[in-house]
UniProtKB/TrEMBL annotation:
This is TetR family transcriptional regulator. Keywords: DNA-binding, Transcription, Transcription regulation. Residues 37-56 bind DNA. The keyword DNA-binding applies. Residues 14-74 form the HTH tetR-type domain. It comes from Streptomyces werraensis. The lineage of its organism: Bacteria, Bacillati, Actinomycetota, Actinomycetes, Kitasatosporales.
């Protein structure tokens, strides 16, 4: 078989997948999980809806692929332990400011089981290992990571989804100054021993 002939369908397939995922991210962000439809996503990608099903199986599979997110968290070994809170807050602010997919995931996560499950997966796979490496007692890592998540996701909800004016208007450096000590406390302070 001619190599250029076999490469052409693969390139078309990759381009189709990219178009579907781009359209899906936009529709999930704009419409939320429940209202976004395979038909609308296919129409935006300029393909037949059957192609979406062929590549992703169903809406849940498409959502999972569209919001495959690598948080690219800082390596705890690369920063002093007492700066982990500031590093995390600054990192998340940078990601949220530039990433509509995260906002879409948050919107869907608070209204839909598939979205919530996706967010739990990201938490388990990416944030929890970082907490285990930083916190003084690895057994406390899940609770500490959950507390960190409550702060970061609460900020994201008020700043990027609900757009509370005071939260939306704060400069990222000011947010980091307020939030970093709390996140640092959650990660590294001694257990309160209640």
């Amino acid at each position: 078989m001619n190599r250029s002939t076999s490469a052409a369908p693969a390139r078309r397939s990759d381009a189709t997948r990219r178009a579907i995922l781009e359209a899906a991210r936009e529709r999930f962000a704009a419409d939320g999980y429940e209202r976004a439809t395979i038909r609308a996503i296919a129409q935006q990608a300029k393909i037949d809806p059957s192609m979406v099903m062929r590549y992703y199986g169903n809406k849940e599979g498409l959502f999972a692929a569209a919001v495959a997110i690598d948080l690219k968290l800082p390596d705890p070994a690369s920063l002093p332990r007492d700066e982990a809170g500031r590093a995390l807050v600054t990192h998340f602010l940078t990601m949220w400011e530039d990433n509509e997919v995260l906002t879409a995931l948050l919107r869907v996560g608070v209204t839909n089981d598939a979205g919530a499950e996706r967010m739990r997966g990201i938490f388990n796979d990416q944030l929890l290992p970082l907490a285990r490496r930083v916190c003084p007692d690895p057994e406390q890592a899940p609770a500490r990571a959950a507390l960190v998540s409550s702060q970061l996701l609460g900020l994201a909800l008020t700043r990027y989804v609900l757009r509370f004016p005071p939260a939306a208007q704060l400069h990222p450096e000011e947010i980091a100054a307020w939030l970093a000590p709390t996140v640092q406390h959650y990660l590294t302070a001694p257990h309160p021993g209640v």
